[in-house]
């Protein structure tokens, strides 16, 4: 019975190492895909900015800028995950959520309930980040 438990433990360790290596490869591939997507987004953004009617496309340009930053934050999260063996800082995730809510706030123009809900979400995330940084994790996961 003891041998069976030891063999099971060995098998579990081998599978854990395999899946750990596989997750690093998948995260690296995702990083490459995001890097290509960031380049494409930047190309579209530059193209929109250089058009003569750029003033008429203000909201579209703002949307593209914020989308670029969201992709960039995802890329930063992937870099962080690769450096820390798959672990990602909660402040990075909260910043990503904050950027997504700000992007959504820029897109919404006429639905007041959605605007209020987004502002409340932003406020809660900012307060949560401040509490986390001050009381829980003081500057060590930057």
Automatic annotation (TrEMBL):
InterPro entries hit by this protein: P_starv_induced_PsiE, P_starv_induced_PsiE-like
One GO process term, biological-process aspect: cellular response to phosphate starvation
Location(s), subcellular: Cell inner membrane
TM segment ranges: 12-38, 58-78, 90-109, 115-132
Keywords, sorted A to Z: Cell membrane, Membrane, Transmembrane, Transmembrane helix
GO cellular component: plasma membrane
Location (main, coarse): membrane
Topology of this chain in the membrane: Multi-pass membrane protein
Entry similarity comment: Belongs to the PsiE family.
Protein name as catalogued: Protein PsiE
UniProt source species: Ligilactobacillus agilis DSM 20509
